[in-house]
Amino acid sequence: MGFAEEHVKWLEYHKNRRNGERLDRLKRGHGHGEQMFVERVWWPIFGHLEDLHPEYEVADWRGRPYFVDLVWKSGQVRLAIEIKGYGPHVQHTDRTRYRQELNRETYLQIAGYRVVAVPYDDLESVPELTISLFKSLLAPCLLKSADEESRQYTRLERDILRIASRTKGFIKPVDLVNGLGVNPRTVKKQMNSLCVKGKLRPVIARGSNRTCRYEYVHSLMDNELW
User: Fold this and answer.
1) Helix, strand, coil content of the chain in percent (nearest 5)
2) Backbone angles phi, psi at 122, to 5 degrees
């Protein structure tokens, strides 16, 4: 089944699950820009529309309903996608509305969403650029390990990753020994394990072959760690 058929089927599925304002918003809000993104960017990457939600309702910091253009929910990952045209988002003729928009985006981040703004003009002229950027952004989510057990993290590994994420991306074993009160050999073993799992990368000291510190490899899936 091609995109046109899948898109109609996808919209009908979401319409049938809504009523009232949520249904009206879907009919009014899923416009040309959103459809262009789904067709020219999302479909070429995934080949399906599973886990993608149009005009997704969330509550803002005041508890009022707010509709995000598109939300992708896959496991623990929540991606909020906003299609932004030049006029309403750059000219800012309504300053109150503009402030509220920025506050909503910040609140979405607090609520656990990764917010991504997509320029409408790029969808028209250079959709391949948006595809490339999204592939890089979503790469950690698209890659699945052949051995699911190897992707599991011990409690100590999670503690190490939390500390690493708060230290500008680099960490030394001595930092963990002092911060966690763990035996140096245990720390080294856990850090080697995290290197195998792709979460840490050893950094070699200049002029030697010894590892002086480790670099934290961040990914979109890291919400699962916390």
Assistant:
1) 55, 20, 25
2) -65, -35
- The residue type at 206: R
Please say whether the beta carbons of 58 and 66 come within 8 A. yes
pLDDT in tens, 17-68: 999 999 999 999 899 999 999 999 999 988 889 899 999 998 888 888 889 9
Residues 6+ apart with CB under 8 A from 95: none
d(CA 57, CA 68): 6
DSSP helix/strand/coil, 218: coil
Q: Cβ of 110: how many Cβ atoms within 10 Å? A: 8
Length of the chain: 226
Q: Rounded to whole angstroms, how far apart are CA atoms 113 and 138?
A: 14
CB 37 within 8 A of CB 85: no
Whether the Cβ atoms of residue 80 and residue 116 lie closer than 8 Å to each other: yes
Which long-range contacts (C-beta less than 8 Å, at least 24 apart) are formed by 158-167? Answer: 158/225, 160/187, 160/190, 160/191, 160/194, 160/200, 161/194, 161/199, 161/216, 161/222, 161/225, 162/225, 162/226, 164/200, 164/214, 164/216, 165/216, 165/218, 165/222, 167/216
Q: Which tens digits make up the pLDDT trace of 161-219?
A: 888 877 777 888 998 898 888 899 999 999 999 988 878 888 888 877 788 889 887 76
